[in-house]
Amino acid sequence: MSAAVKAAMLATKDLGKNERAVAIAIAAHANREGQAWPSVATIAEYAGCSERTVQRCLAKLVQLGRLVVSKVAGIATRVYRLVTGQTTPAPVGGDNPGGAPRVIA
Description:
With 105 residues, the protein is of the alpha+beta class. The protein is built from 4 helices and 4 strands. It has helices spanning 3-11, 17-28, 40-47, 51-63, and strands at residues 35-36, 67-71, 78-87, 101-103. Strands 1, 2, 3 and 4 form a 4-stranded antiparallel sheet that branches. It is globular, with a radius of gyration of 14 Å. The two termini are 13 Å apart.
């Protein structure tokens, strides 16, 4: 099991079963930078729910601040990035005072 999936499983314990399954499905498709771009149909297949349920879950995850969705210029694909409420330590150079939300990668 990948580190991204493990982190998503730990970070989503407080969510409903569908939101959790969607978040884990996205984590399963994440690259090293924490970005994933599976289709809604692919997420639905992995999560074991309908595409409409995936769309509702994506909206809820965004509303909760657990998911950042961005669009790539000129491409219809949306890029997803899961976010936890944990913070990462500031880098040695001090460029990140107080930490920032940790992205599941």
